[in-house]
From TrEMBL:
Gene3D superfamilies, A to Z: GTPase Activation - p120gap, domain 1 (1.10.506.10)
Protein name: Plexin-A1
Domain Plexin cytoplasmic RasGAP residues, every copy: 1-179
PANTHER family, alphabetized: PLEXIN, PLEXIN-A1
Record-linked InterPro entries: Plexin (IPR031148), Plexin_cytoplasmic_RasGAP_dom (IPR013548), Rho_GTPase_activation_prot (IPR008936)
Domain of life: Eukaryota
Pfam families, alphabetized: Plexin_cytopl
Length: 209
């Protein structure tokens, strides 16, 4: 009961497109539209699948990690009691993003029972959030490129670009055939000759090593 308001505020802030003056980051709208486009392209009309894709790539991959590990963001010490409490909040968060019904009984774990009555309300917030994003104006490729360029400029000294490129290169080598094939099949990639350019990078790296 003491924490309820803070949990509500947290969930409301995360699942809102414009909360307390903070606009939704362009990348989220762009990413969710991409997922919807892929679903349309492959004739995936199941609402649960589309919902799960969005949940897996943002709330469950990013926010759950931050909720369980506030020391990643804040200079604080997380003791075992705090860790246990945050695990309950994180579990509630995950259940709120799920499309399946959670049937609880007397033998259900206490961490699921604590917020059982609140989860239907939280689920409606998640659904509204995804729906609100889908109705927002689309982000053009040019606007997204400009946004990423600005982010790169703002954080120029905070990242090791060569390390990031090496990680990407390692991934490309692992899935080289699949990536080259996909680039050859995609019309926009063919126009920009991306397959040939990537093959040149791979050949150059092979010679250098």
């Amino acid at each position: 009961g003491t924490l309820q308001k803070f949990v509500d505020d947290l969930f409301e802030t995360i699942f809102s497109t414009a909360h307390r003056g903070s606009a939704l980051p362009l990348a989220i709208k762009y990413m969710f539209d991409f997922l919807d486009e892929q679903a349309d392209k492959h004739s995936i009309n199941d609402y649960d699948v589309r919902h799960t894709w969005k949940s897996n790539c943002l709330p469950l991959r990013f926010w759950v990690n931050v909720i369980k590990n506030p020391q990643f963001v804040f200079d604080i010490h997380k003791n075992s009691i705090t860790d246990a409490c945050l695990s309950v909040v994180a579990q509630t968060f995950m259940d709120s993003c799920s499309t399946s019904e959670h049937k609880l009984g007397k033998d259900s774990p206490s961490n699921k029972l604590l917020y059982a009555k609140d989860i239907p309300n939280y689920k409606s917030w998640v659904e509204r959030y995804y729906s609100d994003i889908s109705r927002m104006p689309a982000i053009s490729d040019q606007d997204m490129s400009a946004y990423l360029a600005e982010q790169s400029r703002l954080h120029l000294d905070q990242f090791n670009s060569m390390s990031a490129l090496h990680e990407i290169y390692t991934y490309i080598i692992k899935y080289k055939d699949e990536i080259l094939s996909a680039l050859q099949k995609d019309e926009q990639s063919r126009r920009q000759r991306l397959r040939g350019k990537l093959e040149q990078v791979i050949d150059t790296m092979a010679l250098a090593s």
